[in-house]
Amino acid sequence: MEFDLSWILLGLPLAFVLGWLASRFDLRQLRAENRRAPKAYFKGLNFLLNEQQDQAIDAFIEAVQNDPDTSELHFALGNLFRRRGEYDRAVRVHEHLLSRGDLSRTDRERAQHALALDFLKAGLLDRAEDALNRLEGTPFEAQARLALLAIYERSRDWPHATTIARKMHDADQGDFSTRQAHYLCEQAAALSGQADHAGALALLEQAVAAAPGAARARIDMARLQHLMGQPAAALATLKALGEHNPAALPLAAPLMVEAAASTGQTVQAQALLQEHYDGGPSLDVLESLVAIDTAQGAAESARQRYVDHLDKEKSLVAAAKWLAGEKLEHESFHPQVQRALDHAVKPLTRYRCAACGFEARQHFWQCPGCQTWDSYPARRVEEL
User: Fold this and answer.
1) Are 59 and 47 in contact (CB under 8 A)?
2) How far apart are CA 122 and CA 342, in angstroms?
3) 113 vs 337, residue with greater confidence
């Protein structure tokens, strides 16, 4: 049977025409899809700018359906879900992204970070911890470590917090030496509560070595030494506090008076406190000096200190303290007047967080309101 070349000559043009038609059809379909996707995307963006999040989510869902391979749309949609508090939907979006085999390394790391944020916002701390640990060695490493630090502080997992803080400090991601000292002090407090004073003292020594200028480590150490029956060591520790961090001495002034009385070094302690007071009047140091005068039987000298303080500072607290020992013309009304004064000065004797303004009757190393470390000045509200 002979092969007829005429069929080939007739088939080639036909195949060309069919191929051209098919390409035109695919091109038209692609153009139509591309027109639909940007339209939905920009519509969602417009809703987002107008703070219409519900409509924006609907538009982005439509855009994702039209172009399911676009990762940016998924990121936008996931972030919207998280902002609305729909954390389960945000998690599904970001987990879907991570399951894709064609996702670039940059987008994969970005999706992992977004997933960690979803878990954090949802309060799923164990899953957030796992997701954040996967970000080691990525551009999100510093952010992940800060988030881990917050998780460990919130759960009071001080050993893990210490490890993360040390990593960040060694990687020059900030000075975390004071944080490390705080974590060691927290662990020391736990051991001290279990009557393991030797173990607590060892941790406090580490804290002092980690942050020599940090006040808490030396104050806690002096308090523990005094508790262990070592007042001389406690006094020496507080003297070192006055050298390294004199601004924090008012917090330790009453303890210094106790330790000095136990060792017979009241005169030396009084001289140190007086020197600090002369450098900057402080209500807590003033009270400690008054306590020393009173213990030595110099009651009038003690009351005179309040008057001298009023010459330096307009202090309602000092005025109330002085009036407490003053004889009034109508002495029968003295208790009522004193109660009124004590009530008026009570808010002035509180400590105030410099970060959020939270006020408390006692000094905190970490604010109970905003969780910021060292945000409470060592001065009362009246002195600020």
Assistant:
1) yes
2) 46
3) 113
Q: 69-87 in b/e burial notation, b at 16+ Cβ within 10 A? A: eebebbbbbbbbbbeeebb
Q: Write the pLDDT tens digit of every residue in 223-260.
A: 999 999 999 999 999 999 988 888 888 998 999 999 98
**Tokens, residue 101:** 């085999």
DSSP track, 150-213: HHHHHTT-HHHHHHHHHHHHHTTSS--HHHHHHHHHHHHHHHHHTT-HHHHHHHHHHHHHH-TT
Q: What is the pLDDT of residue 311?
A: 81
**Residue 70, phi then psi, degrees to nearest 5:** -85, 110
The whole-angstrom separation of Cα 111 and Cα 108 is 5
Is the dihedral angle over the CA atoms 337, 339, 343, 348 positive or is it negative? positive
Is 286 exposed, middle or buried (CB count within 10 Å of its CB: 0-12, 13-18, 19+)? Answer: buried
Supply 95's token pair: 């987990």
Terminal Cα-to-Cα distance of the chain (whole angstroms): 111
- What Å distances lie between residue 217 and 31, 170, 175, 205, 235, CA to CA? 68, 21, 17, 8, 14
Contact in structure between 214 and 245 (CB atoms under 8 Å): yes
- Percent of the chain topping pLDDT 70: 79
What is the reported pTM? 0.73
When pLDDT is averaged across residues 115-125 and rounded to a whole number, the result is 90
Question: Which candidate, 328, 327, 372, 323, places its Cα nearest to that of 352?
Answer: 372
**Residue 384 confidence (pLDDT) above 70:** yes
